[in-house]
Give the backbone structure.
Amino acid sequence: MDERDNREADRVEEQTTPRTPIIYEIVRRNGNDEMERPAVSLWWSGIAAGLSLSFSLLAQALLRERLPDAPWRELVAALGYPIGFLMVVLARQQLFTENTITVVLPVMAEPTRRNFGRAARLWAIVLAANLAGTFASALFCSFTPVLPEGTREHMLAISSASMHYGPLEMGLRAVTAGYLMAALVWMMPAAGNMQFHVVAAMTYVIGAGGFAHIVAGSAEAFLLLFAGRLGVGELLSGFALPALAGNIVGGTALFAMISYAQVMKEMEGS
């Protein structure tokens, strides 16, 4: 009877969602581990993430090209947006917007000069690598015959629609995307074998809502730049800087701080 009770207790434990402090500790340790990785590893993982995320735009364009011109077309085409994120997250590649929460939690737990330096180092390397990856992808799509002209035009149409917001609205939309990406990271430890669905659902909302993501959006911005439809100044002031600031605010100033606040007292007592 005792053995049966133990088996049932183990089964209940397996099926129970981890407590909030446990989720916090998993994310914090992951962030600490990432900050310890060599710079060259972070760089190439970030490059891979930028290249992978470019497939979100391609997948949307392929769907859009084959759908009728109807009011619901953009909602269905947005199903392609999670493709790049699934590649990045499930392959454990370095993505800047994931790191707005993972590396911030160790800094909040121990706000030392060393931790601030490690976090800044990781952010700088990963962001630069992500943008280098999307830049290379946009070059490849723009100046090689890899894509039919119709598909490229749909990629440009999707990109143009993403860039027509003013800097303030772009920044606020980026706050939402940053919050959703941080929520995705927070949910992963409890997702188990549902990680695919969690990533797909959360990133679909970003794509369908037109919320600004600094890395995915940079693939669109670079494509417009090479097509002569967006200037460098407009790319920086109208998209890159507002999107970057918004993603950081949404992922760090909002979600990460709230996540830390809800477990702060429990962690002090442990």
